[in-house]
């Protein structure tokens, strides 16, 4: 019996353990932190061996196959030791994909991948048997075991792509590439770019690659590398014969002379970045033969994603907006770009080597006050201190929201769009967003 060791007992770890057990592996789960009660219960119920708050090397180095949670860097000594021994170390996306014949749509990118994946799933679900997995919802492995959908839309991070060998989506989508997570890539942007492009490395001429033709990083990479799959670009600035583009008023998607045209003003989500997300999702739906009418209707009634430019409440004619999912500068760029009113901006957290320069035009034009919310706000104070009249440091969400409430006047927006990771003060970006919403609701 082959031994499968799962490093990390979270959503992807528990899912892999269950699928591995069902496929005849002897399974052991090891987590350096605490395993959440809901995952513990699953492991105990299924009689799967596990440990927490330690990695016992004797029980790990004897593995035939290791699935490593995306949160564990390749550089940790234990992972290096496994690789040196010749043990295959893979991600959950790779492991799970070996046990399904489903049509896979893989979506990656620095920003927009959750919205694009959720929107794509929304466009497909009325006419296809389709699951939504990856970085979102129940793990891919668990869904293969329990639901066995005929199609999957997968939101995939660069960390998950780092752990693939044969994973091959029939349709790959790359929303954009901007500097992010550079702390995991030796602070080399080219390493991160290469990681994102792994989504196409196993594709063949029978597969499709949908990407943002306006993104200079993507264009540069494609000019120097060849890919096997069929390119279907989307653009806000160019006319595209095979793929998607936008005029002032419409989105036009064309595949082999078969066209769908949709009015932009009817899209449920605002902002230029959401026109791009809609183009990517519509191209997938068109490829998978979803009816034009269904695509149009679904684009009009899509509700968006929690923690992504989510309107929370309007209090005294001030709109409070939760964009906690903006964990990098580029995501915050889109948020500030879409603000139509004077904005009180709540920013800060764990900085990943951020360069805030591209935000300066919006700060001058739209931001009237900045509230820094982080353990260390020094860089933010130094960067933006002279650009606005009001800049305040806080260490608590409740305090940040109270300050915003005091400063805001009728017609303003209060925007939580941190441009940073959340781990200095919060469990994760969801926790940060929920705390924001609770504090707003209790004003």
UniProtKB/TrEMBL annotation:
GO molecular function: UDP-N-acetylmuramoylalanine-D-glutamate ligase activity
Start and end residues of each Mur ligase central domain: 107-285
Pfam families xref list: Mur_ligase_C, Mur_ligase_M, MurD_N
Annotated EC: 6.3.2.9
Primary localization: cytoplasm
Catalytic reaction annotation: UDP-N-acetyl-alpha-D-muramoyl-L-alanine + D-glutamate + ATP = UDP-N-acetyl-alpha-D-muramoyl-L-alanyl-D-glutamate + ADP + phosphate + H(+)
Keyword Cell cycle among record annotations: yes
Entry keyword set: ATP-binding, Cell cycle, Cell division, Cell shape, Cell wall biogenesis/degradation, Cytoplasm, Ligase, Nucleotide-binding, Peptidoglycan synthesis
Family: Belongs to the MurCDEF family.
Classification via HAMAP family: MurD (MF_00639)
Cited function: Cell wall formation. Catalyzes the addition of glutamate to the nucleotide precursor UDP-N-acetylmuramoyl-L-alanine (UMA).
PANTHER family reported for this sequence: UDP-N-ACETYLMURAMOYLALANINE--D-GLUTAMATE LIGASE (PTHR43692)
Name of this chain's protein: UDP-N-acetylmuramoylalanine--D-glutamate ligase
Annotated source species: Winogradskyella maritima
Lineage, highest ranks first: Bacteria, Pseudomonadati, Bacteroidota, Flavobacteriia, Flavobacteriales
């Amino acid at each position: 019996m082959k031994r499968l060791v799962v490093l990390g007992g979270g959503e992807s770890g528990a899912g892999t353990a269950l699928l591995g057990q069902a496929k005849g592996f002897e399974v052991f789960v090891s987590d350096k932190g605490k395993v959440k009660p809901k995952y513990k219960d699953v492991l105990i119920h299924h009689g799967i061996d596990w440990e927490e708050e330690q990695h016992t090397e004797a029980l790990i180095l004897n593995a035939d196959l290791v699935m490593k949670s995306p949160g564990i860097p390749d550089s940790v000594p234990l992972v290096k030791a496994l690789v040196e021994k010749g043990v295959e170390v893979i991600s959950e996306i790779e492991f799970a994909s070996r046990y399904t014949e489903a049509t896979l749509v893989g979506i990656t990118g620095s920003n927009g991948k959750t919205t694009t994946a959720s929107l794509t799933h929304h466009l497909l679900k009325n006419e296809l048997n389709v699951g939504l997995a990856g970085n979102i919802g129940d793990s891919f492995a668990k869904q293969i075991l329990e639901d066995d959908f005929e199609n999957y839309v997968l939101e995939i991070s660069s960390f998950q792509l780092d752990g693939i060998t044969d994973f091959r989506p029939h349709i790959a989508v790359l929303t954009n590439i901007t500097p992010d997570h550079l702390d995991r890539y030796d602070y080399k942007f080219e390493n991160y770019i290469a990681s994102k492009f792994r989504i196409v490395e196993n594709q063949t001429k029978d597969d499709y690659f949908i990407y943002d033709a306006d993104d200079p990083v993507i264009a540069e990479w494609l000019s120097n590398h060849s890919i096997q799959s069929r390119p279907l670009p989307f653009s806000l600035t160019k006319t595209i014969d095979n793929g998607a583009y936008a005029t002032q008023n419409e989105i036009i998607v064309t595949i082999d002379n078969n066209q769908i045209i949709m009015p932009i003003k009817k899209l449920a989500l605002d902002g230029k970045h959401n026109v791009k997300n809609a183009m990517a999702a519509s191209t997938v739906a068109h490829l998978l033969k979803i009816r034009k009418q269904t695509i149009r209707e679904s684009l009009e009634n899509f509700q968006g994603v929690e923690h992504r430019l989510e309107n929370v409440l309007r209090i005294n004619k001030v709109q409070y907006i939760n964009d906690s999912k903006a964990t990098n500068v580029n995501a915050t760029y889109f948020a500030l770009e879409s603000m139509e009113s004077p904005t009180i901006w709540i920013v800060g957290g764990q900085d990943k080597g951020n360069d805030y320069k591209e935000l300066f035009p919006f700060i001058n034009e739209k931001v009237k006050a900045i509230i820094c919310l982080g353990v260390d706000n020094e860089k933010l104070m130094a960067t933006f201190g002279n650009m606005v009249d009001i800049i305040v440091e806080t260490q608590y969400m409740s305090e940040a929201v109270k300050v915003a409430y005091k400063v805001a006047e009728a017609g303003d927006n209060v925007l939580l769009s941190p441009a940073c990771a959340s781990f200095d003060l919060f469990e994760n970006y969801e926790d940060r967003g929920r705390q924001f919403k609770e504090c707003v609701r209790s004003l």
